[in-house]
Amino acid sequence: MNGFLLFPALFSLLTVWVVFSEFSVTSLLILSIWIVRMLRLKRPVLLLVALLAGGVTGWRAGRAAEAQTLLVPETQQFIVSIVQESVEVDGDQLKFYGTIEQTDRLQSIEEKIVVYYTISSREEKERLETQALPSKIRIQGTLEKPVGKRNPHQFDYAAFLKQQGIFWVLEATTVEQLANIPDEEENYFALLLQPDKWRSNVLETVEKRLSGKTADYTKMMLFADRRGFDRDVMDGFRELGIIHLLSISGLHVHFLIGGIEWMLLRSGMTRERIPWLFLFLLPVYGTLAGWGTSVFRAVCQSWIVYGGRSIARRIHGLDAWAATLILACTWNPYQIYSAGFQLSYTLSFILLLMQQSRLKKLVPSPYLPMLTTALLSLVSIPILSYHFFEFPWFSLIANLLFVPLFSWFVLPTLGLLWLGAFFLSGSAAFHALNKVMNAALLSIEWLVQAISRLPNLTVVTGRLPWVGTVSVVLSILMLFYILEKKKPVKKTALMTVLLFFTVGLASQRYAPSGKVIMMDVGQGDAILVKQPFGQMITLIDTGGVLPFEKEEWQERGEPYSVGEDVIVPVLKSYGIRSLDQVILTHGDFDHTGALLDIGEKIKIKELVLAKGTLTHPNVFPSAAKLHSGGTNILTVHASLKRPVVLRSGLGVLWPFEHGSGSNNDSLVLYGKLGTDMWLFTGDLEQPGEEELMRAYPLLQADILKVGHHGSQTSTSADFLQQLSPEAAWISSGRNNRYGHPHEEVIQRLEDADITVWRTDEQGAVIFTYSMWGTNIESSLPLHSSE
Fold first, then answer.
1. Is 620 within 8 Å of 649 (Cβ atoms)?
2. Which SS3 state, helix, strand or coil, does residue 178 take?
3. What's the helix, strand, coil split of the chain in %, to 5?
4. pLDDT tens for residues 35-61?
5. Is there a single domain that holds both residue 774 and residue 625?
6. Same structural domain for residues 612 and 757?
7. 82 is in which domain, residue-wise?
8. Which has more confidence, 619 or 661?
9. Is residue 278 in a domain?
């Protein structure tokens, strides 16, 4: 076989997509084109294999899509079997995955679950960190539906869990060990039948016998265990485009296999026996490494190649890759949506093609790694732009620097230390090598973080629209075609490719439509105004979660941040790498708290606020730090004599004095976006509304951003009567303790026949306007309570 299975593999992949897209027109069209392509080959056996493989993967996808929960929300008691390797303690939070085996309503059940538990004391945390949880525990708690995608292009936690067969989050109130459960650690036969415990024992050995960074990197690079790995360090690797070095990839498996095969040959084992040994060792290693996406691909692909060698038959790399893809789509069809799957299979495919490319013969050997790295970086751009909204242009240089370092030093040394941990852990040489490795890894981390702090290492593209994606993909395919042609490359062809590529990458950032997005930031306000073609980008308020004082042991390594976890990803998803203006309406923390978090990730050119807000204790420290970094600060207040209009085109109607940054000092902004007149009122309350009506007796608005999150102290009937808006936007948190929006306010709006859009029920609200018209939609279905 020489690439025979490529057609069935891609047919299987497309079949899974068709099923998950609920037989959308686009997916069916592309599948039909592929079927026609296979028919033109006039190879009945290939078509039969493709139909068989596609039938199996399509059936598995259908079963996965139809899976439903057996649990009901009223369930309160659970017996859960724990996946030990998933146990994480972060500050005062315990998290783990498991399988529910029994509840107070069902005597027998087998359903996956993710459990969160708030640790009550320092002593309890120390016990959880030093003692492994029992294999089965009794939990009392409540079932919660996982949070879906509440903001545009946001990570969909509910979909992520569903792809793993998980439909509920269990918020535990008590966790206790079951009585009369035998110690499975002494039951060696039971241990042999539980491969998940092999992995737990290996990771435990690494933690006990290796130390510091050596243990962290060994768990990460050899066994795909990221628990406890420094988030800032991982972000540094990601920003340089070398995060793949920390994951188990084909490169890792290749070097591990190569090293083991070299030692076996030196020990006297014949080449004929080595494949049989690897047929046993590879599945064992896959189990120890957790069978993640990259592990599965690398191990299965290698296993198929060695399987061919064991029967003296050469299996082409492309066929091994294709067979692995079919197996992956059968094993877990949902993984086709993950970035890891898409990057792993796409880049490994390109590497296999490069082995047969004419470039391998034409390009001098010293320059071939550079060309390969460049092409792999180029191919990864559409995937990275879709999932992460940016790609690291510096990755070419970073890979040339760090790939040899990790391949020839870090990975082999970690492998030797891991093997030595079982036989030489008490020796002086082992401890010395461990210390040297710790120092080397610390130096590497320092270098990675130092480089990652340099400005503008990434290109922010946003999530490209389908037209932009097609343009980028076509330009990459055109480039490969040009490079493979034997004829001389024409400048016009390269210029065409560059044009398609550049236009595609800029299609989101300079989209012809404008956006007004009321983001769902919980109990707070944050509204993005992106004008057509990216002419002006304004953020009105930043949201913010009021921090509560915690003891040191309660502090989490990855605390939730509205700025970093919500606003920055939304901004980047629209191709925004800098904000022309950030306007703070007043000083409350739920309107200003995320200012600095945003400013550290996204350049803020100008900060606009009233002088009273600038001196507010919630604002001044952040504003001062941003100003020292180059942000211009503009203080404003309204004037009837000389209208104040900001660069964003929004006019300042209130306040006439600077005030102290309280609710009734909120900046009130008014302007035309699209064909509609907008009024943004911050947290203005009824006394301020009355003053505003007296100052502007003819004021009207098509869309009103309701003041103070729908509190009953705002949005009076008289105010609504004068404005006569068609729609009202309310930003408030789900199940907030203030009862926002108040029933009386909602009733007033309904009595006035005003359409209400609210973040607590519908998630983010997105208004799109262009020369073709306007449209309003929400992240969640209308009137959804999710």
1. no
2. coil
3. 50, 15, 35
4. 999 999 889 999 999 999 999 999 999
5. yes
6. yes
7. 77-178
8. 619
9. no
